[in-house]
Amino acid sequence: MRRVIRTIISGTVLLTALLATVALADVKSPATETAHSSAGMDQLMRMASFLAQLKQLSVAQQSGYDVVQDSGQKIEFLENRKLVFDRPDRFRVDAQRSNGESYAIAFDGQAITVFSLTKKLYASSKIKGDIDSAITYYVKDLGMRFPLAMLYVINLPDEFGRRVREAEIVETLILNGVSYFHLVVRADNVDFQVLLPETGDPLPLRIVITYKFEVGQPQYWANFSNWNLSPNPPESSFFPNIPKDADRIQFFAEPPIVATPPIGKGEKK
Amino acid sequence: MKNLSFYRVLCVATVVLFVVTLALEANARGRGGGGGRGGGMRVSRSGPASGGSFSSRSSQARSTKGTQNRSEMTPRDTATRQDARTDNQVERQSSLSEASEKSQDQRGDRQEGREERTEDRYDHRDDAREDGQDHHYDHYHNDDWDNWVGYAAAGTVVVAGAAVIGSTISESTYSELSCTPEKVEVDGITYVQCGGNWYMPSFKGGEVTYVVVDPPSEH
Q1: What is the sign, positive or negative, of the torsion defined by CA atoms of A67, A167, A205, B139?
Q2: What's this model's pTM, rounded to 2 decimal places?
Q3: DSSP codes, B128-183
Q4: What is the C-alpha to C-alpha distance for residues A141 and B203, in angstroms, rounded to an integer?
Q5: Which helix (H) or strand (E) holds A12?
Q6: % helix / strand / coil in chain B, to the nearest 5?
Q7: Which residues of A touch B129 (CB under 8 A)?
Q8: What does the pLDDT profile of chain A (269 residues) look like in tens digits?
């Protein structure tokens, strides 16, 4: 009888210990995940702060994006962009789309101009201020396209701080002898991934954004190369050299212009 | 007798099936699903991912994105946002009305036919822009300023041949116009005349779009 009671008590103690271990393990895992998330967030914010404090930069951005057609077919289009920023108030983007169309966007602190080299059409809108104001105006008010615009504003750390809910390092990978953190980030309505060097300047090698709530979950991706943090661009590069035979048109979202255009044909500021 | 009824039903069913099949095929052709109009596939180059923004305009996204900060929004916050939205709408409408009144006064005072046409042209263009900006609405009033929705606006109105003033046609539709476009510059801005219609090309999203307008002054 005593042996039976002893067995029951031992069994109960063992079971209790086992359950307690499992419970403790459950409690521990979120803590581990939080620590991991923090490391990911630290790396993301390291990148954001670094990009935001740069006085100058130039970078080549090879990118692609999915477009889900009405038929449901997903088609990827490509685009190459070269971006030059001279803070506080100068930038230029030269882009070429996979259909052969070339265009440039230039901001000189006074006006932002987009020029389609292929179609020989351009539009210009006055906007005084810094690069952040110009990019925000261009995307938000003029409704124009500027992929990864947020990456190039000095407010980037705040933007990430406000939007990002979770960031983790899922792996460390080696590409061409360089070690990169593979960050996976969850924001309110997009997920994105970043490849960021483990050491040295935290300049992204690749960014992939997934529009998780959109039909077909399309992605935008960009591979970055030729980062230059002191390109010393000539001042003239921020003033578009509009050929004489180009036609001036308007931004659709802009009120009609009836005054003399700020940039005349063939005029190089 | 039973056999006769069976064959009748079979005949009717076959005819119905044939008609339905024809209708479905016609519908698929109309949508470009079977290779598109004019023998070519109509391909859209713009979509939610083409803007490369760190946010999305999806309504599903908006309804589910209330994590943390936003999930902590009180009914008062919501009400404030709604008020702001309403105020903005009212403001927008009132400024539109003021602009309209102003333009009417001006017309009453001194404007002649030519200037009226110019005003009308801009009014129509404003209407088209307003339509586009309705699509931009949430984008204008949320904090995700890079939530580019140009792709939505770019595909909103496509009119071929109808030439409704204020409507827009896409570049591909424009390139298919049967008339020969002729460029005309007015006040430094380029217009295009094609057949009896006038167009104002403009950058919209990442594309060039053509707004159908009244003839500019002096034309």
Answers
A1: positive
A2: 0.69
A3: HHHHHHHHTHHHHTSS-TT---HHHHHTS---SS---TT-EE-HHHHHT-SSPPEE
A4: 13
A5: helix A2-52
A6: 50, 15, 35
A7: 252-253
A8: 566 666 666 665 555 554 554 444 444 444 444 434 589 999 999 999 999 999 999 999 999 999 999 999 999 999 999 999 999 999 999 999 999 999 999 999 999 999 999 999 999 999 999 999 999 999 999 999 999 999 999 999 999 999 999 999 999 999 999 999 999 999 989 999 999 999 999 999 999 999 999 999 999 999 999 999 999 999 999 998 899 999 999 999 886 554 444 444 444 33
Taking an 8 Å cut-off on Cβ atoms, the answer to whether B64 and A77 are in contact is no
Tokens 């008609």 locate to: B19
DSSP for A25-84, please give it.
HHHHHHHHHHHHHHHHHHHHHHHHHHHHT-SEEEEEEEEEEEEE-TTS-EEEEEEEEEEE
Which residue type sits at A44?
L
Instruction: Tell me the shortest Cα–Cα distance from B92 to chain A, in angstroms.
Output: 14
B61·A213 Cβ contact <8 A: yes
* Residue tagged 């009400």 (tokens): B79
Beta strands A191-197 and B182-186 are: unpaired
> Sign (positive/negative) of CA torsion A131, B57, B172, A60?
positive
Say yes or no for a CB contact (<8 Å) between B53 and A162: no
